[in-house]
Amino acid sequence: MSVVWTQVALAGVWGGLVAVERKAFLQAMMSRPLVAATVMGLLLDDVTSGLSVGLLLELFFLGTANLGASLPENDTLAATATSAAACTITQASGAPSTPAIWSLAVLLFIGMGRVGRRGDRLLEGYSARLARVALASAEAGNLTRAMRQNLWGMWPHFTLYGVLTALCALAGYFVEPVLQALPVALTRGLAWAFPAMASVAAAIAAQGSHARKAPLYAALGAAAVTVAIVLYLLQERGT
Questions:
Q1: Around Cβ 210, how many Cβ atoms within 10 Å?
Q2: pTM of the model
Q3: Cβ atoms 31, 19 nearer than 8 A
Q4: Which of 110, 94, 95, 96 has the alpha carbon at shortest distance from 54?
């Protein structure tokens, strides 16, 4: 196993950038799971893994709700961590990306969304204090200092989530030998688990829309995603 450190570094930089974009800068939807994971795949030379993981997580988190003052799971970190791990597992295997890899990455790293929520809580106090100081500087007419303080407030987000994403990318290289050691039947099960995950995610997204016929849309969405991916897998097997 040979770790490609440039890939780990790229994953960390992108994970940090979208974390900043999500909370403090631009907020142009680059931090959405579909975009964040797809760009991660592009950077790590595995668009297939990034896009596949991003589609699933976009649907999954699309159906989640932010209730009151409670913080939601950090869907951006879940996407960057999972897609980075999927890409490095694929790279370590030296073979094309597979649904088994995507499933394993999702199962192992989707929990980073909760880790990110804890990180958001830890950084809230610091960000609030810095915002008050920056506001006081602006009111005193020192706009340069206020701008500098706002910029400093972004660094903790970039550093924390960049490091976490890089660690998940690094972990992918160590997960790959485990995947290779799994029995063939279990590997096939992981491959078939991906369309099942996608169908559940589609159902969650439809249910979360609160449309009048949400259950029907959920069932149709789950069925369509399942059929599409099963046909794709059967076509791949035939070729």
A1: 8
A2: 0.80
A3: yes
A4: 110
Residue count of the chain: 239
Amino acid at 179: L
Residue 85's identity, in one-letter code, is A
79-118, pLDDT tens digit by residue? 999 999 999 999 999 889 999 999 999 999 999 999 999 9
Token couple for 211: 């449309």
The answer to whether the beta carbons of residues 208 and 221 sit under 8 Å apart is no
CA angle in degrees (0–180, nearest 5) for 34-216-37: 5
Structure tokens at 202: 């589609």
- 103/125 Cα distance (integer angstroms): 36
Angle (CA) 101 104 107, round 5°: 150
Among 26, 14, 106, residue whose Cα is nearest residue 60: 106
Question: Interior CA angle at 69 toward 64 and 70, to 5°?
Answer: 50
Can you list the positions of beta strands (E) in the chain? Answer: none
